Amino acid sequence: MTDIKSAIDAQVKSNPVMLYMKGTPDFPQCGFSGQVIQMLKYLGLEYTTANVLESDELRQGIKDYADWPTIPQLYVKGELVGGADIIREMFQAGELQDLLTKSGVELNIQG
Element (H or E) spanning 82, and its range? Predict the structure, then answer.
């Protein structure tokens, strides 16, 4: 389990915006992952994803890593932001945009 934890830690710390999701950005495998992808696409930022469905070890590992039971999980600059509900609430309140901007993540909002 230490290996997967180290791998997750490296991903989270080396990617400014890291999303652990079910499926891929082009083909989300659950509604919550799809919602988060839509918000990130709207904000026009660069982000990295990992598909937890590709590995049982990763799927369980990310839950253990953050002590957070659900997927998707969004990390910004190495810190867990939250899951779909928290991300949606923050997005609607403008707090997600503020967090990303303050973290030095460039936004290119669509629309």
Answer: strand 79-82
Fold annotation for 2-102: Glutaredoxin (3.40.30)
- Rounded percentage of the chain residues whose pLDDT exceeds 70: 97
Are the beta carbons of 76 and 103 closer than 8 angstroms?
A: yes
- Map out the domains of the chain as residue ranges: 2-102
Residue 111's pLDDT is 65
Give the C-alpha separation, 36 to 76, whole Å: 14
Tokens of 55: 């590995």
pLDDT 10s digits, 64-101 = 999 999 999 999 999 999 999 999 999 999 999 999 99
**Token pair 């936004």 in the structure block, residue:** 107
| % of the chain beyond a pLDDT of 90 | 95
C-beta of residue 33 within 8 angstroms of C-beta of residue 26: no
Q: Which helix (H) or strand (E) segment is 48 a member of?
A: strand 48-51
